[in-house]
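Chapter review: from sequence to fold.
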Amino acid sequence: MLIRMLEVGPFMENAYVVACEETRDAVVIDPGADPDRILKVIDNEKLNVSTIINTHAHIDHLGAVQAIKKALNVKFKLHRNEKPLVDSFDQQCMMFGVRFGEKPEIDGYLEEGDIIQVGKLTAEVIYTPGHSPGGLCFNFGSAVFAGDTLFYGSIGRTDLPGGDYGTLIRNIKQKLLVLPPNTPVYCGHGPQTTIEQEKNHNPFLTGRMDAF
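The token string follows.
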């Protein structure tokens, strides 16, 4: 599996290009900004992108979607519960005082248990709301892409519309921490981690935050 990470935009969001090294088929995950940089990686690696898949639709993960859709003539998919966030693209821009591209057009929806084929790779869709109503993670087996569900030593914020702390913690524990301990976790912001690292040391998951 080929993974290219680009830290993009003022929110320092991690956009990913994930490809099958044998077939060069690829997907783009969470292209939040800087579409030209993302497209340059795709061109340099000679990849065939079929789909843009998003873990969620906060503006810092959404801003480059439409530009890449147009440039590559590909589809854009995410969970249906994120549609209101996509529809409020302009309001999100105003809320954070930024402007990222155009409002994207949704081509289809992803649900819990769906399988995404990327050449000879497969990714299972895991539904992990809590940071946002339709939050998803993508489990390729050898790596999981967690968006803003789980970070190195932290979790996604839950104070934005549609967020819920209890729901997020429950989904992390029941759906992510059950993965093999050595599974790499590629996060929506910051460095990558592993399931074992977060299970043993993340204060939100070990109960250490209860002391504060």
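Two observations follow directly from the output. The mean pLDDT is 95. The domain at 2-211 is CATH 3.60.15.10 (Metallo-beta-lactamase; Chain A).
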